[in-house]
Specification:
This protein is of the alpha+beta class. β1 and β2 form a beta hairpin. It is rod-shaped, with a radius of gyration of 35 Å.
């Protein structure tokens, strides 16, 4: 075999699509197997990894027909197709791999609901690859399809920029573990396991966002916080729509009476199923917390408003008697007309006496509120952080 050639896979934020799962539907009355090719879809890029226990090679395939010599050999061939453009090329791929028109439709018309279907000599598995791209908080969702036969595994991805199969390629290249000593069904398990394991970094990121939102809600809730809660809930709903049927697809692999998947590999697939269930449990926990965040936000805003009203009430209560006194001495009565017309205006210490009464009254009210414990609540008012 030829040397194992490498190909760098990079992240292109401009083309990395992020989809909240909206499943594809055919137009009413369309023929089975109708392909819906998007105008901006990338042309298919075919990479073939051929390996056995002794050697491994990786080659770029120019034409789908070039895969034919590798499909009926004693080695395991992993054909990875990235890009869903050019309908004519996909028709040729369907002919080379003898894909049923319905299978070709499910592979190309994305996104489809995760599922497992047995076609006798082929086993088709459709999953959603959920990843967290570097520098982004929201998840990236892409459909990945698997077509398993006794000697090869065909995988189809929407984009060629990024996937979670890098460790599997390294295991084949450097002969780590037992992957190169196993059949194609074990390769299928390894790729499914990589897809499932890629979910947990996304969930960890959402767990951190939950903690940040809880802290923000209890300390400095703003109108932006409310928008963040709604956005967070929408993302969790989209993530659930992607993961929930994924559990059923893997469970179908365990139930399916298919000779293409050995009983030994089914033991490993049960571990994948348990991991998906664990991920769904974490996701449901975050959804419950997200639902309660709205109630916490409303309570926090209400409590903050109550504390602000209490502060204004204290200030108003202190100044009401002072305003009363100032209002009395603002009346224009002539003390020369009658000895009862504000005689204290002619006192030598009248002005200091009024100030003394006003200061004493204010101090008395402040002492009274302090004894009642009102200022202890006011001292805990949240302050806005930059």
């Amino acid at each position: 075999m030829a040397k194992f050639a490498t190909r760098d896979r990079y992240i292109n934020p401009a083309t990395a699509s992020r989809r909240y799962v909206d499943y594809a539907y055919d137009q009413p009355g369309s023929l089975p197997g109708t392909l819906q090719i998007k105008a901006n879809a990338r042309p298919p890029q075919i990479t073939l990894i051929n390996y056995d226990a002794t050697d491994a090679s990786r080659v770029a395939i120019a034409q789908p027909e070039d895969c034919t010599p590798y499909l009926n050999t004693d080695t395991v061939s992993w054909v990875d197709v990235c890009g869903l453009g050019q309908e004519a090329v996909w028709q040729r791929i369907g002919d080379v791999f003898a894909l049923h028109p319905v299978v070709l439709e499910d592979v190309v018309n994305v996104p489809q609901r995760p599922k497992t279907e047995n076609y006798g000599d082929q086993l088709v598995v459709v999953l959603h690859m959920v990843m967290l791209l570097p520098g982004q908080q929201r998840f990236f969702n892409e459909q990945v399809s698997f077509v398993l036969s006794p000697t090869y595994l065909l995988t189809v991805q929407e984009e060629a920029d990024y996937d979670c199969f890098g460790p599997i390629r390294d295991r084949i290249r450097f002969d780590r573990g037992h992957l190169r000593q196993r059949a194609a069904d074990y390769l299928l398990y390894s790729l499914i396991d990589a897809v499932v394991d890629g979910i947990f970094p996304v969930l960890e990121s959402y767990g951190e966002r939950v903690e940040i939102l809880e802290t923000e809600i209890t300390q400095t809730p703003t109108t932006n916080t409310l928008a963040d809660i709604h956005q967070f809930k929408r993302e969790l709903i989209a993530l659930r729509r992607s993961l929930w049927p994924q559990r059923e697809a893997i469970a179908a692999l365990l139930r399916e009476d298919c000779t293409l998947v050995s009983n030994e590999v089914k033991v490993y697939l049960r571990d994948c199923y348990e991991h998906v269930v664990q991920a769904l449990d974490m996701l449901e926990t975050y959804r419950e917390v997200a639902s309660s965040l709205m109630d916490v936000y409303l309570s926090s805003v209400s409590n903050k408003m109550n504390e602000v009203m209490k502060t204004l009430t204290v200030i108003s209560t202190i100044f009401i008697p002072l305003t009363f006194i100032a209002g009395i001495y603002g009346m224009n009565f002539n003390p020369d007309a009658s000895p009862w017309n504000m005689p204290e205006l002619n006192w030598a210490w009248g002005y200091p006496a009024v100030w003394l009464v006003m200061v004493a009254l204010s101090a008395g009210l402040i002492y009274f509120f302090w004894r009642r414990g009102w200022f202890e609540d006011l001292s805990t008012l949240p302050t806005r952080r930059d």
